[in-house]
Amino acid sequence: MNKNADLASEQRFVILGGGTAGWMAALLINRAFPQAHLTLLESAAVGTIGVGEGSTPALKSFLDAVGIPEHEWMPACNATYKSGIAFRNWSRAPGFESYFHPFLTHFDRDHIKALQFNSLVRRSGVAVDAHPDKYCYSHYLADRKLCPVTPYTFPFEVQYGYHFNAGLLAQLFKTKALEPRRDLARLHDCGCRPIRRWQRRKPAR
Asked: Model pTM?
């Protein structure tokens, strides 16, 4: 008798709420505890907002971990690549009105050292270029509308996130989470009623 297998089969998980977060949790539990009993509670009466959404590189790490390739999910979720986050009206200082927060790459480490040095020199009164956008590869890609996916032979890793339709991605995660459990009947999509929020009564005047 395999005690570890018996222990895994006795493990029970309950996820409250579906949507992107709920089904991401289900995918992770499927991967880590494939024999565990898993229940997800979500309400058909409380749908997801389903608007566009953006991510950091953490989402790519998650998708790689659960084995969902880009060529499968990106077309299905109207997704595009995201190299960073642009902030307009960032500063009133001339030349610094906007700022692009990059998703750093491996070889940005040397560029950042140059930025730090120039920033210190600029503070001492020397007119050197110290705008962060000039020192990050991700801004270079985004400014020229270039794809951040590198060739296999490229010696450095370039981090990136995505823009996507959150409603479509949640549905795809749900489909993927249910696939390995169809024959086990252990993942339940429960039709819960929405909870009525309690509201405090206004005091009588």
From this structure: 0.76
